[in-house]
């Protein structure tokens, strides 16, 4: 089920009403949320419910075994059961065909032909997100940072809670499970901010991202015929398309959770207002970047074993982070670019004894991110390298416009989205709390304006970009 679909427009208020009719029993509310989450996920393909149920059973059982085990050796044994089981499922469904194709291609290049090793399997939506969420739960228990859950319905709800099930935010057990396992009260302020954030998210996705995507798709699908200026504009549009698409999804997820009394962690904090790449990753997809920092970078040794090992850890973390996004060498290269420049930044700051760059850092950061996005968007390495070569050939001839109305709409909506972000960024209130600034009347007017704009600028695009990861 998609957030921007008619089904969700019906699903959300129905669940909301029934949920608060059960306000005297949080356990009954959890049962409702669990059933609703399985309906939400099964709407796409009910067959893959078996995977999320298996993962939930596994980590519910393993979490208790880790906590109850005597001695580090036994604790580590049960942790490895969780790691190998969850990563094994992720590896088969998401990466097996990628590595099988890469192996066959490598053998072919050296003159050895091998039979087709790929399998006819479909990537389950959201598997990367809920796998990381359950892994962090097991690791936190192993590190004695949380206690294992003994409430099976509550734990299953934690794994599958529908607002964050498909594309995050990747919620930590330390934040979400205590909220699930206690009574929630109807909070009008939370509901107001939730509604505001849901509609901001819909505007970001449906009005801005989808209209930018029309131009991006038309250019990138025929990149060979376009000049430098057209490819550059399309790439800039894509940088904002993926931002408004994914931050819009996160806004709807966080806002939906508020309607049920849950507070999710922030996932975006205006990343394009960053003066360094390090700052960018503290603002972009924060739940993933902090997950990679806490469970991968620190586990590799972080910055505790000398500067060379620190650079290695940064690069490995970002390479794996790139591969997490998709089974393609383009994603690995994308992660590698970020890892390389993060290492260069760390070296520069150390050598010059500074903590950040001046205003020029905004341009530097955006350029690095922009070049890396080309590998993220292009279908393969050849097309990405061709696009980069063409952009840096500086053949800035006439700009391809295409449908003039669609192009003007995209530019206008991008400007509106940027100004809204700038206004909130310069305020002392985060987007998650911004709805508290408005009375019920003002909030109703704002929501009505957003609905009008959604109707005026609705496009045929539906899926969120991060669904493919």
From TrEMBL:
The keyword Disulfide bond does not apply. Keywords: Acyltransferase, Cell membrane, Membrane, Transferase, Transmembrane, Transmembrane helix. GO terms for biological process: alginic acid biosynthetic process. InterPro entries: Ac/AlaTfrase_AlgI/DltB, AlgI, MB_O-acyltransferase, MBOAT_fam. One of its GO terms (cellular component) is plasma membrane. It is found in: Cell membrane. One of its GO terms (molecular function) is acyltransferase activity. The chain crosses the membrane at residues 6-22, 31-58, 78-96, 117-132, 152-170, 190-208, 228-246, 331-349, 356-376, 396-420, 441-461. Pfam families: MBOAT. Its main location: membrane. It is a multi-pass membrane protein. Belongs to the membrane-bound acyltransferase family. PANTHER family: ACYLTRANSFERASE, TEICHOIC ACID D-ALANYLTRANSFERASE. This is D-alanyl-lipoteichoic acid acyltransferase DltB (MBOAT superfamily). It comes from Winogradskyella eximia.
């Amino acid at each position: 089920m998609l957030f921007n679909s008619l089904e969700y427009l019906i699903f959300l208020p129905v669940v909301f009403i029934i949920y608060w009719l059960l306000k005297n029993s949080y356990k009954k509310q959890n049962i409702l949320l669990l059933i609703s989450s399985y309906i939400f996920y099964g709407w796409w393909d009910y067959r893959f419910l078996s995977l999320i149920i298996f993962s939930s059973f596994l980590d519910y059982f393993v979490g208790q075994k880790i906590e109850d085990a005597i001695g580090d050796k036994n604790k580590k044994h049960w942790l490895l059961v969780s790691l190998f089981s969850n990563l094994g499922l992720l590896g088969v469904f998401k990466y097996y065909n990628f590595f099988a194709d890469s192996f066959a291609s490598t053998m072919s290049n050296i003159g050895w032909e091998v039979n087709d090793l790929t399998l006819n399997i479909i990537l389950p939506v959201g598997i990367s997100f809920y796998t990381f969420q359950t892994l962090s739960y097991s690791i936190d228990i192993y590190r004695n940072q949380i206690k294992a859950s003994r409430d099976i319905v509550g734990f299953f709800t934690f794994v599958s809670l529908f607002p964050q099930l498909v594309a995050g935010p990747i919620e930590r057990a330390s934040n979400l499970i205590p909220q699930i396992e206690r009574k929630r009260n109807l909070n009008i302020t939370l509901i107001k901010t939730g509604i505001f954030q849901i509609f901001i998210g819909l505007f970001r996705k449906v009005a801005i991202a989808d209209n930018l995507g029309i131009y991006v798709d038309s250019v990138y699908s025929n990149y060979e015929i376009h000049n430098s200026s057209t490819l550059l504009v399309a790439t800039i549009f894509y940088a904002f398309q993926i931002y408004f698409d994914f931050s819009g999804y996160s806004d709807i997820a966080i806002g939906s959770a508020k309607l049920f009394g849950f507070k999710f962690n922030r996932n975006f904090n205006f990343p394009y207002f960053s003066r360094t790449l390090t700052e960018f990753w503290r603002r972009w997809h924060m739940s993933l970047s902090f997950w990679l920092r806490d469970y991968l970078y620190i586990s590799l040794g972080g910055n505790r074993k000398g500067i060379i090992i620190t650079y290695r850890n940064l690069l490995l973390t970002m390479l794996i982070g790139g591969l997490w996004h998709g089974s393609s060498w383009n994603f690995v290269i994308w992660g590698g670019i970020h890892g390389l420049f993060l290492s260069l930044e760390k070296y520069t700051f150390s050598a010059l004894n500074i903590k950040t760059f001046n205003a020029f850092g905004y341009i530097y950061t955006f350029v690095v991110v922009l070049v890396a996005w080309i590998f993220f968007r292009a279908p393969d390495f050849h097309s990405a390298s061709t696009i980069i070569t063409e952009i840096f050939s500086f053949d800035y001839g006439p700009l391809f416009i295409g449908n003039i109305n669609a192009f003007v709409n995209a530019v206008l909506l991008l400007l509106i989205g940027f100004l809204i972000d700038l206004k909130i960024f310069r305020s002392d209130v985060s987007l998650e709390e911004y709805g508290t600034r408005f009375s019920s009347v003002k909030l109703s007017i704002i929501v009505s304006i957003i609905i009008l704009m959604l109707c005026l600028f609705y496009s045929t695009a539906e899926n969120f970009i991060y669904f493919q990861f």
